[in-house]
Write a structure and sequence with these properties.
This protein is of the alpha/beta class. The protein folds into 2 domains: about 170 residues, Aspartate Aminotransferase, domain 1; about 250 residues, 3-Layer(aba) Sandwich (Aspartate Aminotransferase, domain 2), CATH 3.40.640. The protein has 15 helices and 14 strands. Strands 4-10-9-8-7-5-6 form a 7-stranded mixed beta sheet, with helices on both faces. A 4-stranded mixed beta sheet has the order 1-2-3-13. The longest helix has 24 residues. Pyridoxal-5'-phosphate binds next to helix 4. It comes from Hominisplanchenecus murintestinalis.
């Protein structure tokens, strides 16, 4: 820990909180962050020479595992031609075609540099297209740090215990309406209450920023129906679920078609990439085709596109990967459920395919309010034990564990042994 501690001491002097994104700080679990030097497969290696089995996966992108040979080579090859031109390139066309030809609800797509930008832009397009202003989001869902979405947000905002952010003017959030996840009535009510209706409902189709909260049967289809009835667009924020629950993301997994979808993480394979896409008539609103302005100096960056395309091609060509990920998800999350049952502990384990988490509460977790009932002190203790035993998880109760194709049954088995060890000791 010496080197990580030293680095953290230096970091806090020059970087707010010592990190470039709040979720990387270990404040809520009362630890200093481990500084990572290198990663390979499902392992990360810190500055002190410790090795961890990693369940963060860079917060989602690393679905094939870290430092994947094909992606690394694509990046090296692409970078030999220059890092950025600020001009159109063939690879951007390949990327757009590759996605649009395979994902039925994405007829056109625009590349950006992060999930935050993707959401910010999709909302602007929804407002431009519908001529309406209000947006309905769900408490506990996180859609990046754009002003309008920092209301009752999940992820680091929820971990910090301050659900909204300072520095966001009221004017930026007055058109954001907050509904309850898994509660269609709360959405119906907001739609009926608001005089001009809503431009869009934005949802994480599997909520994964208040811990993992799966949609109840019929919830997503119910949103589709409500949007249709009230002339609102349905935006699936698939920054986490896109290309993870299947190539067609949660939309494909649950068979519900959104009007717009946002991507991030996996689409860039570890490079800073986001995207938003959807129905052609909506996407044709985007400049320079249409009147909704959205731009980016580095958008569609050639090196990032090379990395993303290789990852997407690999996922498309070997769709067995999704079967394998589901199997690994079952092994890990059912394994945890079995341990808890054996020990007579009634904590909740929520999971969908390769995403999941354990909540330290006896009550089922279906939304923000129930997620918040989790005993975060108990989580912290568990987290610290796991970290010391070489298991690297997000340092917050309100995040997901991510599996990758590189996790083997052996490593998952070892992780379960550590978890069993923890619950045998308390
Ligand atoms: C569902 C969701 N939307 C949007 C974002 C924002 O993406 P980024 O961090 O790339 O800006 C995230 C994660 O950060 C996310 O999980
Ligand atoms: N689930 C939370 C994230 O993915 C956020 C990562 C970040 O903000 O650094």
């Amino acid at each position: 820990m010496m080197k990580s501690e030293e680095l953290f001491e230096r970091a806090v002097k020059r970087i707010p909180g010592g990190v470039n994104s709040p979720v990387r700080a270990y404040g809520s679990v009362e630890e200093a962050p481990r500084f990572i030097q290198r990663a390979e497969g499902c392992k990360v290696f810190d500055a002190d020479g410790n090795t961890y089995t990693d369940y963060i996966g860079s917060w989602g992108p690393m679905i094939l595992g870290h430092n994947h040979e094909k992606i690394r080579e694509a990046v090296i090859r692409a970078s030999e031609n220059g890092l950025s031109f600020g001009c159109a390139t063939e690879r951007e066309v390949e990327m757009a075609e590759f996605i649009c030809e395979r994902i039925p609800h994405v007829e056109m797509i625009r590349m950006v540099n992060s999930g935050t930008e993707a959401v910010m832009s999709a909302i602007r397009v929804a407002r431009g297209y519908t001529g309406k202003t209000k947006i309905i989001k769900f408490a506990g869902c996180y859609h990046g740090h754009t002003d309008a979405m920092l209301v009752s947000a999940g992820s680091g905002v929820m971990t910090s215990g301050v659900p909204d952010s300072a520095g966001v003017p009221k004017g930026c959030t007055q058109d954001t309406m907050i509904a309850v996840y898994n509660d269609l009535n709360s959405v119906r009510q907001l739609m009926e209450e608001s005089r001009d209706g809503a431009a869009a409902v934005i949802v994480e189709p599997v909520a994964a920023n208040m811990g993992v909260v799966p949609p109840k049967e019929g919830f997503l289809q119910g949103l589709r129906d409500l949007c249709d009835a009230h002339g609102a667009l349905l935006i699936f924020d698939e920054v986490i679920t896109g290309f993870r629950l299947g190539f067609c993301g949660a939309a494909g997994f649950y068979g519900v078609r959104p009007d717009l979808v946002t991507y991030g993480k996996i689409i860039g394979a570890g490079m800073p990439v986001g995207a938003y896409g959807g129905r052609k008539e909506i996407m044709e609103m985007v400049a320079p085709a249409g009147a909704v302005y959205q731009a980016g100096t580095l958008s569609g960056n050639p090196v990032a596109m090379a990395a993303g395309l290789v990852q997407l091609r690999t996922l498309w060509e070997d769709q067995e990967i999704y079967t394998r990920l589901c199997r690994k998800g079952e092994m890990l999350f059912d394994g945890i459920r079995k341990i808890l049952m054996k020990k007579g502990i009634e904590y909740q384990v929520n999971s969908v395919a390769s995403l999941g988490c354990m909540f330290f509460t006896e009550h089922p977790v279906t939304d923000y309010a129930t997620a918040k009932q989790s005993d975060t002190k108990a989580f912290s203790e568990y987290f610290r034990y796991m970290l010391n035993q070489g298991i690297h998880m997000a340092p917050s109760q309100f995040e997901a564990m991510f599996l990758s194709d590189a996790h083997t049954e052996e490593e998952i088995g070892e992780t379960l042994d550590v978890i069993e060890g923890y619950f045998s000791g308390i």
